[in-house]
Amino acid sequence: MTYLKLTSKKSVLTDDIATADAERDGPSEVQTLSLGAFVTALKAANEKVRTLTATRTDERKANGQSLM
Fold this sequence. Notes:
about 70 residues, mainly alpha
């Protein structure tokens, strides 16, 4: 599996956890397990990876490099 696919799956999982957590009544699983700081840090890291990957892709497109 490629790095991009792995990163995408991890990002989706993190987003799913945060969404499900926000929609839950009562204490969330993230709160119960004291994972709030971890989920927040993971979301920030995922966003940084998305930004860096998009920048790299844009630079490669501008230079006429293959994206594969």
